[in-house]
Specification:
Number of strands: 8
Number of helices: 9
Shape: elongated
Number of domains: 3
Radius of gyration: 30 Å
Pfam families: PDZ_6 (PF17820)
Strand order of the largest sheet: 5-4-6-8-7
Distance between the termini: 30 Å
GO molecular function, one term: ATP binding
Order of helices and strands: EEEEEHEHHHHHHHHEE
Transmembrane segments: 125-145, 157-182, 242-264, 270-290
Helix content: 55-70%
Strand content: 5-15%
Keywords: Membrane, Transmembrane, Transmembrane helix
Protein name: PDZ domain-containing protein
Structural class: alpha+beta
Largest sheet: 5 strands, antiparallel
Oligomer: single chain
């Protein structure tokens, strides 16, 4: 199941370790055991015959146990106590915890983003860099053109009335108008070619779609197309935001560096005011870079993770899993007859066990 699906109802486990799940294979009879464990405790709750593959039951390593018969649990001991009751039906609610973002580094994020785009979208990325450079040049030269227009060309024409001064003024106005128009056009093209634009379908989405077509038809027939497309579209959007943040960070930083020396030649007072505001803008850019870095750390292995999740959802969507469980002392020699079917891939897995 997709990670973090039920993270809104996961208990705050700062004082108690979360109860996780793994499969344990017996060396004697090749049976599989459901193991609930924390960092301090490790308890085998159940044994399942090897005739039913573990993953068909919808239980995957790393899942967190949320509740037993609707009762929230915080420890493996509590889970054992609840499972050992004489209740007719035992329902286990499991969730795959969302991966925690490691502390990121802005420089590593920039390197990762640039390398990813150069490998997968070299031509588009170079085109974006050229558009960014043009926009930076236009933004940097517009103050000089406007200063020449209002402080040189226009006063000279008003005082002398010479045709050459009029030509200078008209030429400057035309240059400002054309560069502004081209600036708007290049900004549109830049937004179009960025990852969150409509210029192309992200490579990761194309790879995932191609991977889906290689699966057997019987699996594709069981798939929920809407949920599958939603997962591809929504999860990969995270990568789009990382690339977009990189563009915004680069344009903002380089524009500021180019404008400062130009403004220094025009107005010393204005330059001082902007220089005082630089730390504020710099802190905002670094904060944006920190968020980008955290997202990038989680996306290093995103393609492989998404492909695995898609295949798991396709294999087990809208199917029923049954398994016969052998007696175990944790259940006081009572056997579970079957595990009920789990829900759609976009929902939390539920499992029911009925006493003999």
């Amino acid at each position: 199941m997709p990670p973090g699906l039920e993270e809104n109802i996961i208990l705050d486990l700062e004082e108690e370790d979360p109860v996780l799940v793994e499969w344990h294979k017996s060396s004697l009879d090749e049976r599989l055991g459901v193991v609930f464990f924390t960092s301090r405790t490790r308890v085998v709750v159940d044994l399942v015959e090897s005739g039913s593959p573990a993953d068909e039951l919808g239980i995957y390593p790393g899942q967190q146990l949320l509740s037993v018969n609707g009762t929230m649990v915080k420890s493996a001991e509590r889970a054992i106590k609840l499972l050992s009751t004489r209740a007719k039906v035992v329902q286990l609610k499991l969730v795959q915890p969302a991966p925690k973002a490691r502390a990121g580094n802005t420089v590593k994020t920039v390197v990762w983003a640039v390398s990813w785009m150069m490998i997968n979208y070299r031509r588009d990325f170079i085109a974006c860099l050229l558009l960014m450079a043009y926009n930076i040049v236009v933004i940097s030269t517009l103050p000089i053109l406007k200063q020449f227009l209002f402080e040189t060309a226009l006063p000279r024409f008003l005082t002398s009335g010479i045709d050459l001064c009029l030509i200078d003024m008209i030429t400057t106005l035309v240059i400002i108008g054309v560069t502004t128009l081209l600036h708007c056009q290049t900004q549109y093209m830049l937004d179009l070619n960025k990852m969150d634009g409509a210029g192309f379908v992200p490579l990761m989405q194309r790879r995932l779609t191609m991977h889906i077509t290689t699966l057997p038809q019987r699996i594709l027939d069981q798939a929920n197309e809407i949920a599958l497309l939603a997962m591809i579209q929504e999860d990969v959007v995270v990568l789009d935001r990382v690339i977009s943040a990189f563009f915004d960070l680069t344009i903002g930083s380089l524009t500021l560096l180019c404008l400062l020396p130009i403004l220094a030649t025009l107005s010393g007072e204005l330059t001082c005011i902007i220089a005082l505001a630089v730390p504020v803008f710099l802190s905002m850019q670094l904060r944006l870079g920190a968020f980008t870095a955290k997202a990038a750390e989680m996306l290093r292995d995103a393609e492989a993770l998404f492909m695995r999740l898609i295949e798991e959802n396709l294999v087990y969507a809208r199917t029923k899993a049954r398994a016969y469980v052998v007696p175990h002392q944790c259940f006081e020699n009572r056997a579970i007859e079957y595990l009920s079917s789990f829900l759609a891939p976009s929902e939390t897995a539920w499992f029911g066990a009925v006493d003999e």
